[in-house]
C-alpha cells in the first residue's frame, strides 16, 4: 500500500523514471547473474584443462619410464647377444682337438685316400661348456619374450584407447553441429581439442612401442640354432646323463 500511495503523489514523468530505474536495476541484476554464471563456467573449464594437462604430464612421465626400461632391456639383451656370439665363436674354435689337429696334419697318401677320417675325440668338458652357453642363451630368450609380451599388452591398451578417443571425437563433432547455444558450442569445441591432444599423445605411444617391438624381434635368435653347436655325441652325452 505504501508504494502505491507514494506513486500517487508523483507526477507522470516521475513515475516513468522510477519504472525505468527499476528496469535498469533488474537488467543489471540479470547481467550480473549471467556474468557470474559465465565466470563459473570459465573457472570450471580452466580446472578441467588443468586436470587434463596434469593427466597428460603424468602419462608422459609413465611413458618415458616405460620406454626407458624397455630401451635398457633392449640394450642389455643386445650386449648379452654380442657376448654370447663371441663365446660361440670361441667355443666353435675350441672344437679342434689334438686328434683333429693330428688328422689335419696327416698327409693324404694313396694308402689312406678314399677312407673316412678318424672320429674326432669327444670332450665332456667342452660339451658342458657348450651346454652352459646354450642355457644362458635360452634364459635370455625367455626374458626377451616376456619383455615383448609386456610391450604387446601395453600396445593393446593404447590401441583400445585410440579407438575410444576416435569414437568420442565423432560424437562430440555431431553434438557441435546440433548445438545452437554459442557458449555450449565453445565448450564442445574445447572438449574436441582436448580429445585431439590425447589422441596425438596416444598415437605417439603406439608408434614408439611398435618400434621397440620390431627392434626386439629383429634381435631374436631361434632356439633351435643354439643346438647347432652340439654334435651328436654331445647330445647323447647329456641325454644319458
Question: Can you characterise this structure?
Answer:
By secondary structure, this protein is an all-alpha fold. The protein has a domain at 66-97 and 121-239. 83% of the residues lie in helices and 0% in strands. Helix 2 runs antiparallel to helix 4 (124-178), helix 2 packs parallel to helix 5 and helix 4 runs antiparallel to helix 5. Mean pLDDT is 71; it is low at 1-7, 96-106 and 231-235. Residues 40-52 have a biased composition (Basic and acidic residues). Residues 26-52, 78-122 are annotated as: Disordered.
Give descriptors for this structure:
mainly alpha, microtubule motor activity, about 240 residues
Low-pLDDT stretches: 1-7, 96-106, 231-235
How many DSSP H or I helices? 7
State the order of secondary-structure elements, H for helix, E for strand. HHHHHHH
Q: Give the % helix.
A: over 70%
Shape annotation? rod-shaped
Residue fraction in strands: under 5%
The number of distinct β-strands equals 0
Question: What is the average per-residue confidence, as pLDDT, rounded to a whole number?
Answer: 71
Question: How many strands, which pairing sense, and closed or not: the largest β-sheet?
Answer: none
Amino acid at each position: 500500500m505504501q508504494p502505491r500511495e507514494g506513486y500517487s503523489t508523483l507526477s507522470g514523468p516521475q513515475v516513468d523514471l522510477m519504472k525505468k530505474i527499476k528496469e535498469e536495476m533488474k537488467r543489471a541484476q540479470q547481467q550480473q547473474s549471467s556474468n557470474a554464471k559465465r565466470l563459473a563456467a570459465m573457472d570450471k573449464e580452466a580446472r578441467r584443462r588443468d586436470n587434463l594437462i596434469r593427466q597428460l604430464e603424468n602419462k608422459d612421465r609413465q611413458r618415458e619410464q616405460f620406454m626407458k626400461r624397455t630401451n635398457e632391456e633392449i640394450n642389455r639383451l643386445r650386449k648379452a647377444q654380442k657376448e654370447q656370439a663371441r663365446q660361440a665363436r670361441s667355443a666353435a674354435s675350441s672344437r679342434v682337438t689334438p686328434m683333429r689337429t693330428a688328422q689335419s696334419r696327416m698327409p693324404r697318401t694313396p694308402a689312406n685316400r678314399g677312407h673316412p677320417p678318424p672320429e674326432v675325440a669327444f670332450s665332456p668338458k667342452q660339451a658342458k661348456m657348450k651346454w652352459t652357453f646354450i642355457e644362458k642363451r635360452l634364459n635370455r630368450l625367455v626374458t626377451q619374450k616376456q619383455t615383448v609380451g609386456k610391450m604387446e599388452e601395453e600396445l593393446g591398451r593404447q590401441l583400445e584407447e585410440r579407438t575410444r578417443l576416435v569414437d568420442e571425437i565423432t560424437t562430440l563433432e555431431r553434438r557441435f553441429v546440433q548445438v545452437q547455444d554459442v557458449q555450449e558450442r565453445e565448450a564442445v569445441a574445447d572438449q574436441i581439442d582436448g580429445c585431439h591432444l590425447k589422441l596425438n599423445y596416444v598415437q605417439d605411444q603406439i608408434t614408439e612401442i611398435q618400434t621397440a617391438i620390431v627392434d626386439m624381434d629383429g634381435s631374436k635368435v631361434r632356439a633351435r640354432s643354439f643346438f647347432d653347436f652340439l654334435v651328436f655325441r654331445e647330445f647323447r652325452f647329456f641325454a644319458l646323463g
